[in-house]
Write a structure and sequence with these properties.
Helices cover 83% and strands 0% of the residues. The protein has seven helices and no strands.
Length: 181
């Protein structure tokens, strides 16, 4: 099982451009759809937890999944599988990139990759919005949060804390309404 965890997350790490958020659909396809290691609901919860924890998003998700399946050894092997491809690629780039920075086709290639990476991040964002059951009544929360971070430079930690407190208060208030019925 550790070998399967390592190879699955190595493949995810090796073939994903754009960082952790771009990995979401690939991780979901592998761990939810293909291997069925976790449910879609568990995956959504893991995304929320991984975003709230310090560290690299993809590593956090891989550690949680590895730990769920094989405890500490699974967490270590899945984290290594996720991190190793990026480490090796960055090492190669660092060794040779200075030689290619001024090559026009290399610069053009990176200009072409940038919009694709934006799309790779946008698709899981919309999928997460659907999974989180965003409606017209609550879609203002992520919009206001994004604007506070982008325009006013509010620290995302404060947004997460405020959303958690708001969700707790909402749950307490609506629980009282449900008990009355």
């Amino acid at each position: 099982m550790n070998r399967e965890l390592f190879s699955t997350f190595f493949k995810i790490g090796a073939f994903t451009l754009g960082g952790g958020y771009a990995m979401i659909p690939i991780i979901e396809a592998e761990v939810v759809d293909k291997h069925q290691w976790i449910t879609r609901e568990e995956f959504l919860d893991l995304i929320a937890i991984a975003q709230s924890c310090p560290g690299v998003f993809a590593i956090n998700i891989s550690v949680f999944i590895g730990y769920k399946l094989r405890q500490v050894s699974g967490a270590i092997w899945s984290a290594l599988g996720t991190a190793l491809p990026s480490f090796l690629i960055i090492l190669l780039i660092a060794m040779f990139f200075h030689r290619f920075m001024d090559v026009p086709w290399v610069a053009a290639m990176f200009r072409g990759i940038r919009p694709a990476v934006v799309a790779l991040i946008a698709v899981p964002t919309f999928n997460l919005a659907k999974s989180a059951r965003l409606t017209f009544s609550n879609c203002w929360i992520p919009i206001v949060s994004a604007l506070l971070i982008w325009l006013l430079g509010v620290n995302p930690i404060f947004i997460i804390l405020a959303a958690g407190i708001g969700g707790l208060m909402y749950g307490v208030l609506t629980e009282g309404d449900e008990n009355e019925e």
